[in-house]
């Protein structure tokens, strides 16, 4: 169950937007060395599953995301700027 803004709950395999702050993607298969891509959860694409209403989809993350190499925005090769932004936003 995922709780959506307004208190509604939905049975889904999707994560809710802002349920976590930072997603790390292991890119080892690219070049057989340890690399990672980082992205804020709020920058991830939303679900496009038609069984959910539009008002629900805008609060649900897609269950899969395409990642390219080299990384393209909004993915980053290090987490530090993302983490600084998150901290700044929370201090406001």
How is this structure best summarized?
The protein is an alpha+beta fold. The protein has two helices and four strands.
Task: Give a verbal description of the structure.
The longest helix is centred in the C-terminal third of the chain and has 12 residues, at 80-91. It is built from 2 helices and 4 strands, in the order E-E-E-E-H-H. It is globular. The termini are far apart. By secondary structure, the protein is an alpha+beta fold. The strands form 2 sheets. A two-stranded antiparallel ribbon has the order 1-2. Strands 3-4 form a two-stranded antiparallel sheet.
Secondary-structure content class: alpha+beta
What order do the SSEs take from the amino end to the carboxyl end, as H and E? EEEEHH
What is the number of strand segments?
4
Strand order of the largest sheet: 1-2
Strand residue content:
15-25%
- Largest sheet descriptor: 2 strands, antiparallel
Computed over alpha carbons, the radius of gyration is 15 Å
How many helices? The count is: 2
Helix proportion range: 10-25%
- Round the mean pLDDT to the nearest integer and report it: 94
Unreliable stretches, pLDDT < 50, 5 or more residues? Answer: none
> Termini distance?
30 Å
Can you tell me the overall shape?
A: globular
């Amino acid at each position: 169950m995922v709780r959506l803004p307004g208190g509604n709950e939905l049975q889904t395999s999707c994560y809710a937007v802002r349920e976590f702050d930072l997603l790390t993607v292991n890119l080892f298969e690219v070049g057989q060395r340890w690399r990672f891509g980082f992205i804020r959860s709020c920058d991830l694409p939303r679900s496009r599953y038609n069984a959910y209403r539009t008002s629900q989809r805008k609060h649900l993350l897609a269950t899969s995301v395409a990642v390219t190499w080299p990384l393209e925005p909004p993915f980053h090769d290090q987490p530090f700027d993302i983490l600084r932004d998150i901290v700044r936003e929370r201090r406001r």
